[in-house]
């Protein structure tokens, strides 16, 4: 049983001042409103309704936190969470890119998400969830460029991979690695970015994603807790990669 199965709702925040003060490492999930982010979180945590998927995409504008550890089992238990025993937090960021969201809501999203991903000390990594058929749309790139200067890992999950044939899957990974490898730090070194294919209905990539997320959180047997590193600039590089990771740092 994966440690992610322990996930249960912990708290929600609509403003930076409402963010929890827990010192536990956090890994945030970001993505467009129709990319399958909630489905991905629920499958990883083996729960149907942990992450809320609104019937109207773009309506959920809060940051939701799910705790790992600090309670006996998942959210279905009523026993209180022991905050001091929380090992990690999964963070569900508001979905973005839905056209019917008002201008004020979009501005609030930009301020909330931008400040959170750029400045949150407890945030050790970002999981960027994208539709494998339409990855790296402008707001996805914006999220990458907000987070890249922190020097922390980004793991891209390309969802709906069951809708791709073999050649399309290979091309999706190749193109994703080309984009990710174009980001380098001020010394010309690649950022710790990685990518994989994923399908909730077919459970493609589930074990790979589970292992990666636990490693980034320092919860796997062969991993160490992550420390915050900083980098002050991003630039582009002409190098490309055909593997599923643009860096060996995990």
Structure report:
With about 250 residues, the protein is of the alpha/beta class. It has a single domain (about 5-215), classed as 3-Layer(aba) Sandwich (Rossmann fold), CATH 3.40.50. The protein is built from five helices and seven strands. It has helices at about 35-45, 105-120, 140-145, 165-180, 205-215, and strands at about 10-15, 25-30, 65-70, 90, 125-130, 155-160, 195. The protein has a seven-stranded mixed sheet, sandwiched between helices. α4 (about 165-180) links the parallel β6 and β7 (about 195).
Outline the fold blueprint.
Elements: E1 8-13, E2 26-31, H1 37-44, E3 63-68, E4 88-92, H2 103-119, E5 123-131, H3 138-147, E6 154-159, H4 166-181, E7 193-197, H5 206-217
Parallel strand pairs: 2-4, 2-5, 5-6, 6-7
Antiparallel strand pairs: 1-3, 3-4
Briefly say what this structure is:
The protein is built from 5 helices and 7 strands; from the N terminus they run ββαββαβαβαβα. The protein is an alpha/beta fold.
Low-pLDDT stretches are 227-250
Spatial strand sequence of the major β-sheet: 1-3-4-2-5-6-7
Structure classification: alpha/beta
Helicity, as a percent range: 25-40%
Number of helices: 5
Residues in β-strands, percent: 15-25%
CATH class: Alpha Beta
User: What is the H level of CATH, i.e. the homologous superfamily?
Assistant: P-loop containing nucleotide triphosphate hydrolases
**Number of separate strands:** 7
Q: Sheet bearing the most strands, described?
A: 7 strands, mixed
